[in-house]
Amino acid sequence: MADLTAPQFTDETAARAALEAVRWPNGPVCPHCGSVDDNVTKMEGKAHRPGLYHCKGCRGQFSVTVGTVYERSKIPLHKWLFATHLLAAGKKGTSAHQIHRMLGITYKSAWFMCHRIREAMKDTSSLPIGGGGKHIEADETYIGTKKGYNKARSTHHKHAVFTLVERSGKARSFHVDKVTAKRLDEIMRANASIESTLNTDEALRYVKMGKPFAKYQVVNHGKGQYGLGDHTTNSVEGFFSIFKRGMKGVYQHCGEQHLQRYLAEFDFRYSNRAKLGVTDKEPADKALKGIEGKRLTYRRINEASKAASLG
Ligand SMILES: [Zn+2]
Q1: What is the whole-number distance in angstroms between the Cα of residue 60 and the centre of ligand 1?
Q2: Is the pTM of this model over 0.70?
């Protein structure tokens, strides 16, 4: 865990400088027209709010938060960086309740902050995971209870999650309406390299899906096999156990419309974990880079959560 008393977490000017360094390693870039270097000048003096730049290219003004999930927020930037760091770091992340207490802001503000940061953590890469000589593990799990049911009696009354994990690599999770071979196959085609070896349990829907892959290996849990050699689904099962433990106390209230965002958060931490040689500072910097172009407005998220209780 980085030093939480570091200047960028306690001081507004230091926070802005830290975010500028991550977003603009080669100097400021105008978010309106892309101008750089001599075309961009810092507006000095007390007449301007700090951190403001003028662009000669488009005659516009901008600061480092324009076009990001932090834009137009009343919460100071150093609190945003603090919360982003807490959500990106460690294995389990930090709940909105903890952030509410640690930052001395309302629970509602903390809840909205967390959802915006999750948006920043979304993996927008269109490249498939896996590849030649690599293993992908695929599995599904069920969580929570769909609206209109008091208690989930069967998996039909729960929310389904389908996850692909590259062994010793990244995770990608998808909230699916219904677990059908067709839907899972679409996700697989878009996200997994067929050069990989695919590992699944014995569910029949995977058999056809496994065909295009370089190799397909089945772990037969029904026959008491829990991994023979490299025939395992231990990585994806490990991911699900972290996810379920982390969602405890949250998922009962987690509206279906928010589930994909929680999954983005768990995928992010799993894909940037220390085991992969990622240092403590890197995940937070990566999340900070992801803030661009994903502005999640209060209204949009508010509408989405209207029906659901805060969770
Ligand atoms: Zn410009």
Answers
A1: 6
A2: yes
